[in-house]
Amino acid sequence: MGIEWLRDLAICILGFGAVVFIIFLGVLAYLLYRKVSPILDSVKGTTRTVQNISSCVEDEVARPLGQIAGFVQGVSQAIGLVRGFTKRRRER
After folding, report:
1. Which residues of 25-62 are buried (b: 16+ CB within 10 A; e: fewer)?
2. What is the pLDDT along the chain (92 residues), one digit of tens a residue?
3. Distances in Å between the alpha carbon of 67 and those of 30, 45, 78?
4. Phi and psi (nearest 5°) for 2?
5. Can you give the three-state secondary structure of 42-84, one letter per residue?
6. How far apart are the C-alpha atoms of 33 and 45, rounded to whole Å?
């Protein structure tokens, strides 16, 4: 038994260990995927719900408030314009 035999034995042992390690990593990744998959599905459902709620809030709250704010600003500008005309007439 020379050094070549010992080298070949070490290569075989390391190769077998590498194969076992790769199989272990594959099984671990599969188990992790099985655990994380339901969580990801739940997160997807939650994001859909939040998206629906935000679009509903936009339709029911934000858009009417924007219209009211625009109307109030228009009325305020009109009042300011009328006041400007009346001040000029009083100053003359």
Report:
1. eeeeeeeeeeeeeeeeeeeeeeeeeeeeeeeeeeeeee
2. 788 989 999 999 999 999 999 999 999 999 999 999 999 999 999 999 999 998 888 888 888 888 899 999 999 998 988 888 777 666 65
3. 53, 32, 16
4. -100, -175
5. HHHHHHHHHHHHHHHHHHHHHHHHHHHHHHHHHHHHHHHHHHH
6. 18
